[in-house]
Task: structure prediction
Amino acid sequence: MPPRTVSVVNMKGGVGKSTTVASLAETLAVEGVRVLVIDLDPQSNVSMMLAGPERWVELRQKGKTIDDYFNQFVQTDSHPKFLRDCLAYEVGDVSGEMRLDLLISTPEFRYIERHALEKWVKQAFDVRQIGNRFAKLTQAAIDSVQDSYDLVLFDCPPGISIFAEAAIELSEFIVIPTIPDYISRLGIFSFRKRALRSMEQRRFTEDRIWTLITKYEASNTLHQSEAALLKDQFNVFETRIPQTEQIARAAEWFDAKRTLDQKYGEATNVIRRFAGEFREKVGLI
Ligand SMILES: Nc1ncnc2c1ncn2[C@@H]1O[C@H](COP(=O)(O)OP(=O)(O)OP(=O)(O)O)[C@@H](O)[C@H]1O
Ligand SMILES: [Mg+2]
Result:
């Protein structure tokens, strides 16, 4: 069975997309799910979280990056490298036997998008077609490693990006992390419409688009009321990810392996609960 494909995406920045990808990937991997994380964000946050800065530099020097993967295709229109030659294997700083691999991003990744636009727009492709090209290529890349993974998770950049569009186009499920406040809820309306269109084109229903409440402060009455409104208006995970120091600290790489409980402290149970809900929704039981 091919892997489930899931984009973690929101136009809004700083809502916990990369944190969600990293914690979900680690939790599921510990549970025995074979996970591939693809970093589509030139900020490279999830790459740093899961590979650590030293290995990230090493991978970059060896050309094992998403930019290297797409570069040849954009420059010469020729077939890209094999995805399996560009991956970082056995990433994460959580202990245990697991399959957790990663395609890292680098700041240069933003130029790939620019080159692709400059070149292909001249050849009369529109932005949507360019997105579709990347979606097809990415799908083919996943197909080439499909026996190795149960789940492919895309960490998308904030704002508008061709690669985020491509990820939405090819993903079977979409997770939208959001902070429960007024501005963030407004943002979800328009963004969700975009995601819904992509789902409908593939005859998928809207129960494949899920909102995840992040940075939740239980004592904050605005968070309480906004979380209730989100629940009325969208498909929302029951689990809310709390704002905690330990989750923020988990972003920092540790050279010594630690258990999930050591890494996430009191938040571990919530993170596990979210992973359980996620598995149910995407059919990874
Ligand atoms: N539940 C949480 N509790 C405390 N801090 C958090 C939590 N979730 C995320 N953070 C912190 O908030 C910041 C933004 O998180 P993150 O990078 O995951 O967001 P993002 O949506 O991926 O951002 P961007 O849009 O820039 O990619 C980071 O410093 C992260 O450590
Ligand atoms: Mg991010």
